[in-house]
Amino acid sequence: MRLPPVRGPITELLFDRLAGPPGVPLPDISVEGGLGDDDLQLALFACYELHYQGFDGVDDGWEWEPGLLGFRRVLERRFEWALADAVPRPGPVAPGEVRRALGELTGSDEGPPLSRFLQREADLTTFREFVIHRSIYHLKEADPHTWGIPRLRGRSKAALVEIQADEYGGGRRERMHSELFRATMRGLGLDDSYDAYLPRVPGITLAVSNVMSLFGLHRRLRGALLGHLAALEMTSSVPNRRYALGLRRLGGDPSAVRYYEEHVQADAVHEQIAANDLCGGFAAAHPELTGDILYGAACALTLDRLWARHAMACWERSVTSLLGAHEGVAAVT
Fold first, then answer.
1. Gene3D superfamilies in the record, alphabetically (predicted)?
2. How far is Cα 186 from Cα 177, in angstroms, rounded to an integer?
């Protein structure tokens, strides 16, 4: 994975330091920008990526370099403030009410009709563009939520392991969801390498991924991490059925469609595990953190809604929702 082009003063400073040996100090910075800010979100994404696959030419010693962690913390504070501004924090509920409260949150969410548009109207170029956006997370699908496993005990830990085992294909590489998504990309004529489209996606796409890493890498946010995962699972089956129908309409072959069809069935099961055993079990053990569970779910829904609004607004004007090109996705296939 290569460091992408810079998008402003923050990434310019950060990437310049990462090109050198660990220990080169990073100066104090003042950070502005919000959930869709390209410079902020790319800088934060790069800091988090050091805990995943890293970057070619960047010393692995940067991962836990104290100066970089301090720099990242400034970015995270700004990100958390932006989240707090955009996402009203639900109040705490009794542990036995968490399942109902999650259902109310996910059931009342009315984001842009993106899945219906992809099912019925999108052309192949637009569907490719959708897949490019989603590749930023789906090529490392499940990894951010796996950080939660060592931070749980008992019922909630067993539930998260059960969900993640399915995400990782039950130990079979070809059934890993990230590998199924790579097959979707190949079927659409897209580059399925891990970093191919990082330079092309806007800040709001990176924010969708960054919030998972934020919750996953901080033990204090483990309740939000579980709520985030529950929201994903509880809102997945119907859209994925529509994506599968849309891709079949556009001529997608079985290997390209399999990722979406797999999620129609798997996430219907995961929904029950996530809401009842994962979040319910955690709430029973930590009743003081029920508000965090619901906040994590609300963050997942809000960021996905903001990303979908961006994409739909561009597609309705017949312009690309990606960065760095005006001729559409066909040029990057």
1. Heme oxygenase-like
2. 14
CA distance 284 to 317: 48
Put simply, whether the predicted model's pTM sits higher than 0.90 gets the answer yes
177-222 pLDDT per residue, tens = 999 999 999 999 999 999 999 999 999 999 999 999 999 999 999 9
Domain check: are 123 and 72 in the same one? Answer: no
Q: In angstroms, rounded to a whole number, what is the distance separating the alpha carbons of residues 81 and 235?
A: 26
Which helix (H) or strand (E) covers residue 119, if one does?
helix 114-120
> What CATH number does the domain containing 324 carry?
1.20.910.10
Rounded-to-integer distance, Cα 181 and Cα 261, Å: 11
How many folded domains does the chain comprise? 2
Extract the tokens encoding 151: 């931070």
Domain boundary among 33, 63, 86: 86
- Let me know: does 36 contact 86? Beta carbons within 8 Å: no
Identify the domain containing residue 154 by its residue range: 95-332
Distance between CA atoms of residues 150 and 211, nearest Å: 19
Q: Is 2 among the domain residues? A: no
